[in-house]
Amino acid sequence: MVLLQLFFASEILANTLILMCTRTERDFSETYELKLQSISQATPKGKVYLDGRDLDVIGSEGRQFVKNVTITQQKASYLLSTQFDAEVLEGISYSAGSVTSVVMIDRETGKLRKLDTIQGGILGANLGDGTKSYEEQCVAQP
Fold first, then answer.
1. Number of H helices, E strands in the chain
2. Domain residues for 80?
3. How far apart, in whole angstroms, are the C-alpha atoms of residue 17 and residue 21?
4. Which of 1, 9, 105, 113 has the fewest beta carbons under 10 Å from its own?
5. Using CA atoms, how far apart are residues 2 and 114, in angstroms rounded to an integer?
6. Hey, how many other C-beta atoms are within 10 angstroms of the C-beta on 130?
7. Cα 122 from Cα 64, distance rounded (Å)
8. Greatest alpha-carbon span in the chain
9. Number of folded domains in the chain?
10. Can you tell me the distance from the alpha carbon of 11 to that of 33, in angstroms, rounded to the nearest whole number?
11. What is the pTM of this model?
């Protein structure tokens, strides 16, 4: 019976990864918790949580969906798709836009690499359309 419980516990742990990550840009630094859950019997769809907030969001500002979560012994990754509705901000009109994010984490080094592909919208107008790359550092939590 104990072996059976250990087996199920290891299966759950293998499908969930919790990291503390630090993002640094110029003089600004931010630390946050990133929790990834891959597909399992208990979780039929991969999930990602940032400081406890589910990244699957539908709201007045747009829609964001976690498309895929993969966790292996060496790496973890997820794909995030975000669509923004057209908006007017401070008298300036912005078209609808989208961002597709691919996040890859090397579990051995803790290096998180994020590739954002921006098309249109307020982000395209301010950051430019195209692919941007970011790196952050993470530490796995027990």
1. 2, 12
2. 2-140
3. 12
4. 1
5. 40
6. 10
7. 16
8. 66
9. 1
10. 22
11. 0.82
